[in-house]
């Protein structure tokens, strides 16, 4: 038998204690490793909603949704966009790139909507 084997057999309690300590440190290390491997990511998506009381879906589309889409499409932060126009309301979902600061994106969207708002019908 080798030296290491004889030493391990003579000191079984010490080897068991070292093994338990190694497992405990491994569990603690794995817990903190998960947090570092999976950072929190903001969902790169924002929604712009506008209401136009009493308007038909076609009127909402042409008078509200299309002007808003035109203003939002011009922004460099916007990667993709989907919109839904229904009776009295318009909803535009804007997708942005991962890594963009969500506060900056929201401010840019608000500026774009503010610029187009004077051209929208009264009450929108």
From TrEMBL:
Signal sequence, renumbered to the chain: none
SUPFAM superfamilies registered for this protein in UniProt: Multidrug efflux transporter AcrB pore domain, PN1, PN2, PC1 and PC2 subdomains
Positions in coiled-coil regions: none
Tree of life domain: Bacteria
GO CC, any one term: plasma membrane
Biased composition (Polar residues): 81-94
Record-annotated membrane-spanning stretches: none
GO molecular function, one term: xenobiotic transmembrane transporter activity
Pfam families for the chain: ACR_tran (PF00873)
Name of the protein this chain belongs to: Efflux RND transporter permease subunit
């Amino acid at each position: 038998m080798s030296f290491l084997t004889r030493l391990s057999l003579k000191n079984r309690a010490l080897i068991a204690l070292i093994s338990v300590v190694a497992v405990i440190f491994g569990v603690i290390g794995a817990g903190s490793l998960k947090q570092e491997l999976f950072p929190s990511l903001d969902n790169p998506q924002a929604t712009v909603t506008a209401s136009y009381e009493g308007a038909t879906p076609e009127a909402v589309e042409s008078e509200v949704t299309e002007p808003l889409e035109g203003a939002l499409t011009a922004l460099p932060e916007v990667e993709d966009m989907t919109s839904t126009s229904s009776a009295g309301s318009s909803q535009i979902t804007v997708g942005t790139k991962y890594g963009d600061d969500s506060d900056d994106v929201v401010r840019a969207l608000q500026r774009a909507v503010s610029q187009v708002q004077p051209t929208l019908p009264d009450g929108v």
